[in-house]
Amino acid sequence: TDPSHIRNFSIIAHIDHGKSTLSDRVLEMTGTVAHRDMQAQLLDSMDIERERGITIKSQAVRVNYTADDGETYQFNLIDTPGHVDFTYEVSRSLAACEGAVLVVDATQGVEAQTVANAMMAMNANLEIIPLINKIDLPSAEPERVKAEIEDGLAIPADDAVLASGKTGVGVHDLLEAVVYNIPAPQGDADAPLRALIFDSYFDPYRGVVALVRVVDGSMRKGQKLKLMASGKIILAEEVGARHPAEEPLPQLGVGEVGYLVTGLKDLSQVKVGDTLTLAEGGVDEPLPGYREAKPMVYTGLFPIDSDQYEPLKEALEKLSLNDPALIWEPEKSHALGFGFRVGFLGLLHMEVVKERLEREFNLDLLATAPSVEYHVFRQGGEMISLHSPQEMPDPGEIERIEEPYLKAKILIPPDYVGAVMDLTVARRGTFVTMNYLSQHTVEMLWEIPLSELIMDYFDKLKSNTKGYASLDYDFDGYKPSNLVKLDILLSGKPIDALSFIVHRDKAYDRGRVLTEKLKEIIPRQMFEVPIQAAIGGRVLARETVKAKRKDVLAKCYGGDISRKRKLLEKQKQGKKRMKAIGNVEVPQEAFMAILKVD
Ligand code: GTP
Prior knowledge:
Bound molecules: guanosine-5'-triphosphate
Keywords: Cell membrane, Elongation factor, GTP-binding, Hydrolase, Membrane, Nucleotide-binding, Protein biosynthesis
Oligomer: single chain
Membrane topology: Peripheral membrane protein
GO molecular function: GTP binding; GTPase activity; ribosome binding; translation elongation factor activity
Family: Belongs to the TRAFAC class translation factor GTPase superfamily. Classic translation factor GTPase family. LepA subfamily. Belongs to the GTP-binding elongation factor family. LepA subfamily.
Subcellular location: Cell membrane
Distance between the termini: 59 Å
Strand order of the largest sheet: 11-10-16-7-8-15-12-13
């Protein structure tokens, strides 16, 4: 296709503003997918995405659109993930585009991720088409939202497209706006190949498939290509476009977006953000902006049944093929046996990965409380990156500890400034500044330890602001902090998998609340189980789980058999998520109790 007839763009939005619904409508209205084949939210192909209504991996779809001028255009629509955990993938996807459609919910207005995504699109020099969505809703306020887009984002919104992904109103206007406002790709068709890898996934039959944007030159089936980050040479087994069903093509020309079957079996060799060139006669300079995605949160994943250690390892290998941000190393716990310490971009990423491991690979897993990466400096200066509280050296050996901080940006209506102050100060946040973006929106900037943010901060923020607050954050480097390891002891024995790192000033409170929580969570056993929280040898709090008095069935008088069966059933289910630690049965919840401590 002649590049003048190509439009590469992304649809960006705050979560739930209707991006996926709108993308689906575009596919349907361009005849890419017939109505009867529309599965709700076609682009969100993974089950978990569909269930949770979130887009995790970005996707690319090619659409042919015959415009009102009678010409047919090739649209490459690149869907981007909407959640803050996945901003690296958003930025890679945007690098493959010339324009972006900024979707804003007509009833919600500009929210934190609207701002963050719009900033990223502006940084990538994209042409932005504002679209005010869900105008079918009676509570839609398109004029107010236009003003917010102009005041808050400095994007002209007079000509914003007014649309509804649900009814299809305004989608034709959107398609025309894409043709006229988004620039055609510019590249050198005669230069050697340079292509950006903006996504990749593992296909069980064909190996690693990369989603690519050709910047210069072209990519043909059968060519030998080089991955510039690793220098690895691969064979282009197949190239083509996705509609979203894959259509093999002889080549991908300059400016085009499509897929490449690499034949590689290991996804870690195909890094998102890397540049592809020709193996012979290729370029020396990669495309700008490649960086490795860096995990922020670590957790221990242990199979409930130790026979599942190898299958868990294989599953992690498979998933990380498709997810360069996922890293892991073996971890051994006295309490839980052999497992892995796994690094994630954030808590949502962690939940999604754990769920996929359990569902797609049939594993029963126990996850320990998430922890961040601490920098521990030993006396004498050696620094250790600590991913697990278990690796903490003795206090006497430690000179200082540093922890990761975030710059957090919170958008709220002015009424909630006080509530956010109270909560964030209690989480060791340092207030930086506050601006009125509009009459209805205040932007507060904070510095807050990442470890505090991962403790249900977001849930608390939402509930303390009646759901109005939105949060965005960036990594802000390491700062020294007075941190200690808090041990949890069951029946007098420290349980390594339950220990965690906490600020000294919070140690007593957290220890007390946690022992109380654990008392509720750990089921009664045949014997008494003392629970203690301690620093070094010093006990800060103690609770006791009393011994079981009678059999569960003793509760049922006489012969109600179905009730008995139900109780047994319930007991069995409760068991599933338990792990015997020594002789105490500890449920999964116990490990997550640390996250909910106020
Ligand atoms: P992520 O992919 O998770 O970022 O969400 P999204 O932005 O793709 O939102 P999605 O398309 O999943 O829509 C969110 C919710 O809004 C769903 O419940 C949709 O049914 C609803 N919705 C989407 N578009 C419209 C619309 O135009 N009108 C109305 N009334 N509801 C809509």
